[in-house]
Amino acid sequence: MIIVFVAYIVILIGIVAYSARRSKTNDDFVLGGKKISGFSLALSERATGESAWLLLGLTGIAYSEGMAAIWVALGCVTGILFLWTFLAEPLQKLTSETGALTVPGLFSKKFKGTQRSFGIISSVIIIFFFVLYIAAQFSGAGKIFNDTFSINPFWGMVIGSALVTIYTMLGGFITVVATDAFQAVLMVVTCVVLPIVALGIAATYNIHIAETIANASYFVPLNNASVKQVTGGLLVLNGMSWAFGYTGQPQLLTRMMAMRSKKETRQSRWLAVSWTLLAYIGAFMIGIIGYKLVQAGALGAAAANVAGDAEKIMPAMVMTLLNPILAGILLSGAVSAMMSTASSQLMVVSSSMTEDFYMHVTKRKIKERRMLMLNKILTLVVGLVGFLLAIVMEDTVYGLVSYAWSGIGASFGPAIVLLIFWKKLSRAGVFASLITGTLSAVIWRTWLLEPTGISERLASYLLALFMAVLFSLIFPEKIPNVTGQKAGFK
Questions:
Q1: What's the alpha-carbon Rg for the chain, to the nearest Å?
Q2: Class of residue 149 by CB neighbours under 10 A (exposed 0-12, middle 13-18, buried 19+)
Q3: Could you say which architecture CATH assigns to the domain 2-394?
Q4: What is the distance between the alpha carbons of residues 76 and 41, in angstroms, rounded to a whole number?
Q5: In the predicted model, what is the mean pLDDT of residues 198-206?
Q6: Sequence spans of domains, the chain
Q7: Is the pTM of this model over 0.70?
Q8: SS3 for 298?
Q9: Residue 69 pLDDT > 70, yes or no?
Q10: Distance CA 43, CA 13 (A)
Q11: Which of 94, 116, 424, 442 shows the smallest number of beta carbons within 10 Å?
C-alpha cells in the first residue's frame, strides 16, 4: 500500500514538473492564459469543488444521519447542475469581453471606478473564509494519514500541506489544473469501486442494503442530537441550501472563466455532470453501507476509530475491506480530494491578494516577473497560515467547509447571479451582497443557528440576495453599462 502511495506521489511530481514549464507569465499563473483544454478544466472544477468534504465530510454525514443526509447530497448536485447549465457559458463570455482574471475583477470591469473598493473588500472576504477552508483540507489530510499509515495527525497535516503548497507555488493555475485532472480520476474511481466492493461484503453478512434504504426515514436522522433536533421540512431546506453556495465560489467560477470558447464549455458540461453523479452516489453509499458494516462487526477494530469520528468511515472501510494495492489506489484518491481543493484555494487567495488588493492599494505598476514572484511568495504564506489554523481548530471537516462555503457563497453568489441575469444590478447592490453575505454568515452561525435551527447557508444567502436587489433599486446606476450590453446579458 505504501509503494502504491509513493507511486502516486511520483506521478504527481512528474505532472507538476511538466506543467510548471508552461506557466511563464503572471496571466498564466493566475488564470492559465487560455492554454488549458475544456475537459481538463471540467475535471479540475469537479475535483476542486468536492475536496475532503466529499470523501470524508459527506460519507461521515451519511454514516451518522442515514438516509436523512440525502438532502445534503441532492443540494450539492442541484447546485453543480445549475452552475454548469446556466452560469458557465455567460461567465466564459463575460471573461472574454472584459479580460478579468478574478471573480472580483468581473464586478470592477462592469462598474468603472470600483476597482479599488471592490478589490479590497473582496480580497478581505476571500482571505478570511478561504483560510478556514484550506485549514479544513489540511485537517482532512491529517485524518487520512493517521488512519492509513498510523502517522500522527500533526505530521499528516505537515505532509499534506507541504505537498500542496509547494506544487501550487511552482506552477500556479496551470499546475493546479493539471494535477486536479489526474486527481479527479482517482476520486471518482474511489467513489465507484469502494461501494461496489462494500456491497459484495455486505451480502456475505446478510445485509440487504436495498431493504435498508427502502425502510429508512428520510426526514429524521439516525443521530438526531447531532443536528440540534432539526427534522422534517427544515431538514430538507438546510440540506438543499448547499446548492446556493455553488454560485459564488471563486475557485469554481474561475474554471468557467478560463474556458477558451462557448463550444468547449458546452462539451465540458457533460463530463462535469457525469462525474458529479458517479461521485455523489458513490460517496453517499459509502456512508450508508459503512454504518451497516460497523453494526455487523465487519470492520473489526477499525470500528473503534469511527465511533469517535464518523468522518473516518471511508479510510476504515478501505483499510479493512480491500487488498493493499487497491487500498493504496483508493487512499490516493482520498488524499487527492484534499490536495485538489486546497491548491485551488491557495491560488484564489494569493491571486486575490495581488490582483484585487495589492495593486489597488499601492496603485503602482509592477513588472511581470516581480508580480509573478509576489504571487508565489503569498501562496507559501497562505499555505503556512492554513496549516497553523488546522492545528489549533477542533471543528470537523464538514463544519469548517459548511462555514466557509456559507460565507463565500452568500457574499459573491447573489452578486454573480444578478450580474448575469438582472440588468438593474448596481454597484450598491454588489456592495450590499458582499457585506451582507459576510456579516450574516458570521452572525447567524455564532448566535442564531441553534435557536432557529436554520442553516447559515440558507439564511445568509437569502438575506444577501434581498439586500442586493433592494440597494440596486434604491441606488440604481446612472450611466448605462456598455460592457454588459455588448456581452449580451439581460
A1: 22
A2: middle
A3: Up-down Bundle (1.20)
A4: 19
A5: 95
A6: 2-394
A7: yes
A8: coil
A9: yes
A10: 19
A11: 424
